[in-house]
Specification:
- Chain B: InterPro entries: Bact_StressResp_Reg, Globin/Proto, RsbRA_N, STAS_dom, STAS_dom_sf.
- Chain B: GO terms for molecular function: heme binding; oxygen binding.
- Chain B: This is STAS domain-containing protein.
- Chain B: It comes from Jeotgalibacillus alimentarius.
- The structure holds two protein chains of two kinds.
- By secondary structure, chain A is α+β, with helices and mostly antiparallel strands.
- In chain A, 39% of the residues lie in helices and 32% in strands.
- Chain A contains four helices and five strands.
- Chain B is α/β, with parallel strands linked by helices.
- In chain B, strands 1-2-3-4-5 form a five-stranded mixed β-sheet, sandwiched between helices.
- In chain B, helix 9 links the parallel strand 3 and strand 4.
- Classes of the chains: A alpha+beta, B alpha/beta.
- At the A-B interface, helix 1, helix 2 and helix 4 of A face helix 9 and helix 10 of B.
């Protein structure tokens, strides 16, 4: 069973909208404040990546319910330039924009499951899930 | 042709108005009507009708002023733009149907009449949509200004100690202001220690952290120390998860502890008065 809500990321303020959506869903599902902060931060990172590197894209929030386990999945989709070397971007401290380079590896640590799918020139599809304990 | 329509509308005004309102209420998404109190809908929709009629009759200055004040009113009352556009369209339909029904126009010239009616409606809808857009733009720019005003003040709380409380989301624009105000303030207030308070920042992601680190480094360059205060427990955990290195910072959980520490660093402390 999945219920999905999405936010289009076109400018910096859409990142705030995506965060708000994620926080609300996380609250509804019963996540604690720490997990809420983790989820919103992860959304913030992924949405900012879309804004910075792809220019536009979509960020969706799924409510999951698998084998009685509730969870929240963040899906970040864009048709941007893609990531040439995924292993490289998952390293701490690697950044092409002069940032801290902690975004993607950080999101992996903030969430329970993390999957990244990207082809240069085609876009990027990142899925990260947090399960309710 | 022109006069024929106006004459017809004037003759059957009450009937047309009734039909038009019926059409509008029955057909419109119930949600849109629901959010408006009924008497407001009643009175404004009559006025709406008047304006349309006035436009049909003459195109002088009086009409222009009236249209402007009307569209202002519509916007103020919060008529949804969808309803306004629909109202105009339904008016054309109602009048046209009514004309045919009464046999005032020939069946084969129906298209011409419809075109003429459409031509009359266009300036009205343009004006109203224009007013809507202007109102929105004004609201947005006002809010932007309001946001800028509460952006990032640096407050000298004590000699050599300044505080910058950050509240709300930090975007690129605000991060730039934080940096500017911080450096200007440190120099002009001759601060030794600056406390950046992030109690009111909802999310500290890598970008926010990056900006704070940069600001702290810059403060260091002008000869002051930077302290990060107001780190909530959940923010502390996400910062650790993200792997952000804040070792160079002195950090405390509350502003109170931060001020005490800052006093200590500048060789002072708070003592209670005896007696």
């Amino acid at each position: 069973m999945e219920i999905q809500s999405c936010v289009s990321i076109l400018n910096e303020w859409d990142i705030v909208a995506a965060r708000q959506l994620g926080r609300n869903v996380a609250k509804e599902l019963g996540f604690g404040t720490v997990d809420q902060a983790r989820i919103t931060t992860a959304i913030s990172e992924l949405a900012r990546n879309i804004y910075l590197y792809a220019g536009e894209g979509q960020l969706c929030i799924d409510r999951l319910n698998e084998n009685g386990k509730a969870g929240l999945r963040i899906i970040a989709l864009d048709k941007g330039p893609g990531i040439p070397d995924i292993r490289k971007v998952m390293e701490d401290g690697f950044s092409t924009s002069g940032g801290l380079g902690a975004g993607l590896p950080g999101v992996r640590r903030l969430m329970d499951d993390f999957n990244i799918d990207s082809n240069p020139g085609e876009g990027t599809d990142i899925r990260a899930t947090k399960w309710l304990r | 042709m022109y006069n024929k329509i106006t004459a017809h509308i004037e003759d059957h005004r009450e009937e047309l108005e009734r039909l038009w309102k019926e059409q509008l209420t029955s057909d419109t998404d119930a949600r849109i009507i629901d959010i408006m109190p009924e008497h407001i809908f009643e009175s404004t929709s009559s006025e709406f009708f008047d304006i349309i009629l006035l436009n049909l009759k003459d195109k002088d200055r009086e009409y222009k002023e009236k249209l402007q004040s009307f569209s202002d009113k519509v916007v103020r009352l919060g008529w949804p733009v969808a309803l306004v556009v629909k109202g105009l369209r339904e008016f054309v339909h109602t009048v046209q149907e009514n004309l045919v029904q009464y046999g005032s126009i020939d069946k084969e010239r129906e298209g011409d009449y419809l075109e003429l009616l459409d031509k009359w409606m266009t300036p009205i809808s343009n004006e109203i949509i224009q007013t809507y857009a202007e109102t929105w733009e004004k609201t947005v720019s006002l809010q932007k200004m309001a946001l800028q005003e509460l952006s990032a003040p640096l407050i000298p709380v004590m000699e050599q100690i300044s505080v910058m409380p950050l509240v709300g989301t930090i975007d690129t624009e605000r991060a730039r202001l934080v940096m500017e105000n911080l450096l200007d303030g440190v120099v002009s207030h001759r601060s030794e220690v600056v406390l950046i308070d992030i109690t009111g920042v909802p999310v500290v992601d890598t970008m926010v952290a990056h900006h704070i680190i940069q600001a702290a480094e810059a403060v260091h360059l002008v000869g002051a120390k930077c302290m990060l205060v107001g780190i909530r427990p959940e923010i502390a955990q996400t910062i650790v998860n993200l792997g952000i290195d804040l070792d160079k910072f002195i950090t405390t959980s509350t502003m109170k502890k931060g001020v005490e520490l800052a006093l200590e660093m500048t060789g002072r402390k708070i003592v209670e008065l005896e007696g």
